[in-house]
From TrEMBL:
Subcellular location: Cytoplasm
Gene Ontology molecular function: DNA binding; DNA-binding transcription factor activity
Organism: Guptibacillus hwajinpoensis
Name of the protein: Redox-sensing transcriptional repressor Rex
Single GO BP term: negative regulation of DNA-templated transcription
Binding site residues for NAD(+): 92-97
Known function: Modulates transcription in response to changes in cellular NADH/NAD(+) redox state.
Signal peptide: none
GO cellular component, one term: cytoplasm
Amino acid sequence: MKKEENKLPNATIKRLPLYLSYLKSVKKSGQKSISSVEIGHALNFKSDLVRRDFSKIKAPGRKGAAYEVKKLVNHLHLIVNEKTEPEAALIGAGRLGTALLHYNHLRKSSPKIKMAFDNNPKVVGKTIAGVPVYHIDEMNERLTASVTVAILAIPAASAQMVSEKLSETGILGIMNFSSAYLKLPANVHLQQIDLARELDTLSFLIHFF
């Protein structure tokens, strides 16, 4: 990426992987061109925000015309792969969190967990499976533009409050391992993973089907 592109706002940088992911699916469907209105509608962004982001990264296209999907995907690929490879932050370094960190150490694909947060003095300041653990109060200052995903491995009682703080930092996706049902802004994607509920479902299937 050229020097001027390094000056991109963090909020724009965080949206780039989301644009790329969506546009790759559009390209796969066979659609050749797309407007900022279509992109904004699909991702819950205002169309003028999409246009400003694309202007800042010098996306190929003419003012007032639709974007060519293939060229736009290729352009975003160059920027995302070089400068904004998605990374994840883990919230909660207890037993489940520690297990996730050790699994993360074995994964080769992204996003990989680059930092963890907790409030337990027994783990704060330590490194687990190569990942530093910071105090949860340091989230705002520690989270970088490349961290677009957060993984919640914390008690349900604190999950909503923490997820709201994460949303304010520009996080675009949250994987929630708690049993809490989170209410998030429309532009933050949620993946709910309740192990207890999944086990209950499996038990039901075994006994009744």
